[in-house]
Design goal:
Helices cover 37% and strands 10% of the residues. It is an alpha+beta fold. It has one domain (4-155).
Length: 156
């Protein structure tokens, strides 16, 4: 599938739904290890910051539910500074960043949950269409997420 989306720099307006995604940042910063000189991070569903599908066979103007690491895995492309890149070439567009890799250790389950449950509100907030294809792997149980996060906080 040859699909693309725009990288948006829109900021959430501080609604309580958006603050949920921000609250975990402090914990993630404390547990993140810099194993390389390039910036490496956990990747969230792109639609949380307003990213949408610019070109797609069925999802034009919809909030994008995928993360950068999922886009690498799925062979998706993106536009940046009027140039098209494949996500596997992410670090060519952003040389200071490591290539996003998809694995279970780099997933932000709370943010995936927010995307799954609040994509219609996100779409309204950013003036886009709701996502019609939320990944099945975003179907998390909120109680399990809470236990995982409490374990992270207790371990740091």
């Amino acid at each position: 599938m040859d699909t693309e989306h725009i990288i948006s720099i829109g900021e959430p307006s501080g609604q309580s739904v958006f603050e949920l995604a921000k609250k975990i940042d402090c914990t993630l910063k404390r547990i993140r290890e810099n194993k390389e000189t390039q910036h490496d991070t956990h990747h969230q569903p792109a639609g949380l910051i307003g990213t949408y599908w610019r070109e797609h066979s069925t999802q034009v103007n919809e909030i994008d539910a995928s993360s950068c690491s999922m886009a690498v895995r799925d062979g998706v492309g993106f536009w940046y500074s009027d140039k098209r890149y494949k996500y596997r070439d992410f670090n060519k567009a952003f040389p200071e960043w490591s290539l996003p890799l998809y694995n279970n250790n780099h997933r932000l389950k709370l943010r995936e949950y927010i995307c799954d449950h609040y994509h219609e509100e996100l779409a309204r907030h950013y003036g886009r269409l709701p996502c019609t294809r939320i990944p099945a792997e975003y179907k998390h149980d909120l109680n399990s997420i809470e236990k995982e996060l409490l374990n992270l906080v207790d371990d740091t």
